[in-house]
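Appendix B, example 12.
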Amino acid sequence: MTSAEKLDRMFRLEKPRDRTEIPVFPHIITWCGKVAGITQAEMMADHRKWLQAMEKCFEAIGKPDATMPLPPADTVFSMGLLARLPGRELGDDELYQFIEKDWFSGEDEYDRILETGWQNYTIMHQCRVQQPPVTNPQEIFARFGEVGAHGAEAAMFFLQRGVEPITHASAAPVFDTLSLMHSLEPFLMDLVLIPGKVMDVINAATPSVIEKAVGMLRQAHGTRIAIWAMRSSATFISPAMFEEYAWPPLKKMIEAFWAAGAVSVIHCDANWLPMLGYFLELPKRSVHFELDGATDIFKAYDIVGGWHSMRGDVPAAMLAYGTPDEVSEYCEKLVTQLGMKGGFMLGSGCEVPLNAKLENVKALMNAVK
């Protein structure tokens, strides 16, 4: 069975006939450099160095069924945050770091967003977070063009090797993007003190986010779209706040993407367990959850298993500090208790960390053999 067939059956929630039909996806962006002997600075400066590192990594651990086709520099750029980079502020082989800063001058910033328009405002924001800041927005448009070109090149590179891109387009909910732009604490205070202003922006901007993402999806002829909902979990907000502020626009996005023929692959960092019941309101099979270990994946499967699919969730700490036997034992539990029921992809909890042990990642890969 090809990787494409494994993923297709998994998204359709079909039960595998044996464990070899369970797809596997260790989320690798930076760790491949450690395996290949290529520094983080080199991969940050040249996306083809990253592809070279990924190929050497696959030679060492075996080919996964899926991967994220986004090089490190494009990953950093797409976040829209200030960053310290290897080879610039950091050592050549250190992991990049994000810096969260409050860019809002006051509550009138929401009025400014409404006047400017969401897409124009986010371009302006990308200009100011670059180091040094960019004065000409055309440079940002050109950089987004590079991101698209690099993603297409990476997708083809992996497809030629029998590895599926996990997604074909991406989108970030306005709720989460505002939280990153404003920074968490002041954003949460705004939800308490001026929720109407916040929701005016979210409601006005969400249709443009959907339109842009669907356009990307159609251009790529894709069927899977990433949603980066990184501030909507119970780690950051209460279930009541989620229901009132984050869920309605997120639901609208997922329904629109499903109508456009795409599964929403939601990157669920942190604890999503109290929020998962809401997703039963959505069409069956319309969501794929990427869980990172902070959510109890077995309880999560009890809630949404059989309705939506999920990936997870070998924790980063286990890959870095555990033993191959510990990884194998945990993967066996995932495979037997979840994987054989269908709608499950074995993988790392979020990204494989930079200090992961090679033998531990191999143990993860070997769990479905």
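The chain is about 50% helix and 10% strand. The CA atoms of residues 206 and 312 lie 28 Å apart.
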